[in-house]
Every structure is written in C-alpha cells, then in structure tokens.
Specification:
33% helix, binds zinc ion, 19 strands, 5 domains
Length: 448
C-alpha cells in the first residue's frame, strides 16, 4: 500500500526537478515502471511455547498490524514467572504483529519453606527446607540430658509430628528443665520449673515438702491420653509474682495457684505472691500440699467421682491444715479456716458446687462440712483414721462412669447425702466443734 502512494509523489518530484539532473532521470523512471502496484497483506509468524509446568493459548500466523493476545496457564502446583522474549510479568501478553516474534512462557514449581528450630534444651531431627506443596514432613524433637520436651510452637504435644506442607511455616520445639524432678512410687512424675526470684529457702522447703508428700500420698499413674494431660506426670511452674510471666512460652498468660489446663494439658501453677515471702505467711508452704493433694484426687480413679466441692476443695484444704499441723505445729484450721457461715449448717448443698465465690474464705465452709462428715462417720462407728480413709481414699478411688453423687455417697459412707445434710443442722457453724485430733498423722491415713 505504501508503495502505490509513494510512486506518484516520487514522479511529481522528478518532473519538477532542474533539467541538469535529466541524465539520471531515465534510470528512475525505468524503476517505477516495472511492477504494477498491487495491495498484498504482509503476514508474520508469532511463535509461542510453554516451559515445564504450564501451557499457552494464542500464537500462529497473523496479518501485519494485528494485535494478538497470548496467555500462559500454569499447571496445578506451578506458578507463572514471566516470558522469555518479553520483560512483562503479566500472564497475558498483547502483541502487535510487526515482525516474526517468538515468546516462551516460563513456570516454576510452587514450594514452601519449613523452618524447624530447637529451643534451649534439645535438638530437632530436621531443620526443615523447601518443599513442594502437599509434601508430608516428619520431625522429631529430642531433649538433651536434664531436659524434657514440652511442646511445639504450634501447640502439638507429641515429640514426633507429621505435617503436610501447604504454606511457609516456622516451628520451634520447646523444652523444659527437668533436673529437679520427682518420681513417685507408682512412677507418677513431677517436673519442677522454678522462676529466678523465688527465695532459695522457699525452693529448699518446696523440695522437702514434695518429698514428704511423695512418700506419703501415692499418686496413681494413669494411661495418658495426651502427653501432658497430668495422668502420668505433671509440670509444676513456681515463680514469684513480681517476675511477671517467666514461663510464658510454656503456659502462656496463665497464673495464680491451681491445677490448671484442660484434658490435654494440665499443670500445677504456684504463682507465689511476693507478700507471702515478705510477711512469711505459712500459706507459702501449705499451698504446695494443697495443690499436690488435688493431683492425687484427680488421678485416684480413672473416672473422677461426681464433683462435690466440699469433698474436693474442702478435702484439699483440710489436707493442707493437717500437713501444717503435723509438720509445722501450726493450727491453720483455727487461724485461717475459721470464717464459717450459717450457710454451712443450714444449706450444706450450697457447697456442692463452685458457685460461692466471696462467701468462702480459705474454703472455711467446705472444710467445716468436710470435717463434719468425718465426725458423722465416727458417730456411726468408724475410728478417726477409718473415717479419714473413707473421705480421702475410698471416695477418690470409687469414681466410675454414670454414677450419681447420691449413689456413690451412700455406697462409700454408708448413709445418704440427705441424711448427712440433716445431721449438719444440729451442729453450730464453728470450726472448733469439728477439729480433728492434733496427733493425727497423714501416714496413718494413707497407708495401704
Ligand atoms: Zn482447689
């Protein structure tokens, strides 16, 4: 098309030229004469191809000037990375046909990075790497001597975990110090974790108390459902409240003094208020016995007996007083558990459940009801030791599925729970009327 327009203009130019150039004019004139001007569509080839991991649409032979779009399509598990022959990173490329052109769509396998690290106290079987999506990877956390594996940073608790790689992931194995652990007669194991600001004297006393308890009250080892469910062992985290959250990587923001957690992870927390050290409250020691006894209670049966607060909390609080009485000659009953209310004698059923925050001071009402039960057992013929064996051993070992508190109460104590509540009505709500013997020794109760 350009040629047919150009030629007439060229001729006009020649004819208007000066005559001096006439000698060359014939040559030019001859050239323009040869082909008849005609309209021919010029075509070019667009060659497109796909590298490994994808396909392409578009390509072929096109008339000059046409705009053609080609698209790169990655296969599953691959991603488009760009074009060979063009700097565009767009998956669709629009090309103006003005020459023969060649392009190649490039693809790469999609991979993810797994980074596995070990915290202080252990190693990991693999540091991870780069994996294709869907790859199964198995890693194992191995504690070094003196440490035990606690959990992975994704909260998994088995030391060997398998995961399917589907994203970038960082995983850390968390270990805790176990050098100060204690193994019971039935292989039940406590792991000690101490914060740095506990008085050394308290730590020493803690170990002594745990040793005393461990040799007296045997905690039954149960088959565990999860690694840290408290059935075969338990971590104790003890720290001074002024330290804040020294075990945050292990227990998050949990605090207070409790057996805390759920059916998968249970631990014993002793967040010790600093005032207890400053003012030397005896509770700084008795709380160790109190929480220890809870571990005994929840493991004595495969299935815990129905919850009765005065047996659970009242039982543990009585236990701590018996411990202080025996080992420190301190009467915690009359000093700290004396704030009984008339509710304990008028409405003992109120203390079956944990609905009474604010009414109970150091579980005084629950302790009172608990000690009243011991007295009622003695009235019906038990010795004091026998009565304590019923409330401390028989009850906690009697747990089973689908049994009501009424059935179990009657079975273990020999009289009905309603009879018991009626009997309490004849007591005055005064701890001094139900105190156990000062000579009572835990070893006498917990022998078998
Ligand atoms: Zn408790």
């Amino acid at each position: 098309m350009k040629k047919s327009i150009f030629i007439p203009i060229f001729l006009v130019f020649i004819f208007s030229c000066s005559p001096d150039e006439e000698t060359s004019a014939p040559t030019n004139t001859i050239q323009t004469k040869t082909p008849e001007p005609e309209t021919v569509a010029v075509q070019y080839t667009l060659t497109v191809s796909a590298g490994l991991g994808g396909s392409i649409t578009g390509g072929g032979t096109f008339n000059e000037g046409k705009e053609v779009t080609v698209t790169a399509i990655p296969n599953e598990g691959y991603r488009f990375t760009g074009w060979e022959g063009n700097s565009s990173t767009n998956q669709s490329l629009t090309i103006t046909i003005n020459s023969n052109q060649t392009y190649k769509a490039l693809f790469e396998l999609i991979t993810y990075t797994l980074t596995v690290t070990a915290g202080e106290g252990g190693t990991v079987s693999s540091e991870g790497g780069t994996y294709e999506g869907g790859t199964e990877v198995s890693v194992t956390a191995n504690p070094t001597s003196g440490y035990q594996f606690l959990k992975w940073s994704n909260e998994s608790q088995e030391s060997t975990i398998s995961l399917t790689v589907s994203q970038n992931l960082e995983l850390e194995a968390i270990f805790i110090y176990e050098a100060l652990s204690l193994t019971g007669r039935d292989k039940y194991k406590f792991y000690y974790n101490f914060g740095e600001n506990l008085p050394q004297q308290w730590v020493n006393e803690f170990r002594l108390i745990m040793g005393n308890l461990n040799s007296t009250v045997h905690i039954t080892t149960r088959d565990r459902v999860s690694l840290k469910d408290g059935k075969s062992g338990m971590n104790i985290f003890a720290w001074n409240s002024i330290e804040g959250l020294p075990f945050q990587s292990e227990i998050g923001n949990a605090g207070g003094t409790c057996i805390c957690g759920n059916e998968f992870v249970r631990y014993k927390l002793l967040e010790m208020p600093n005032d207890e050290f400053i003012y030397e409250y005896i509770h700084r020691y008795s709380v160790i016995a109190y929480e220890y006894f809870h571990v005994y209670q929840i493991n004595a049966s495969i299935v815990e007996p129905p919850y009765l607060k005065y047996l659970m909390e009242g039982g543990a609080a009585t236990f701590e007083s018996l411990y202080l009485q025996q080992y420190y000659s301190f009467n915690y009953f009359t000093n700290d558990q004396k704030n009984t209310t008339d509710l304990a004698t008028n409405s003992p059923a109120f203390f079956e459940t944990f609905n009474d925050q604010g009414i109970e001071i150091n579980y005084a009402n629950s302790v009172f009801i608990f000690l009243t039960l011991v007295k009622e057992l003695q009235k019906r013929g038990d010795t004091e030791i026998q009565a304590f064996k019923r409330v401390y051993i028989d009850w906690w070992k009697s747990g089973r599925n689908n049994v009501s508190k009424e059935t179990l109460f009657l079975e273990v104590f020999g009289f009905s729970i309603s009879d018991f509540y009626e009997s309490i009505g004849s007591y005055s709500a005064d701890i001094n009327t139900v105190l156990p013997s000062e000579s009572l020794r835990l070893q006498d109760i917990f022998t078998d």
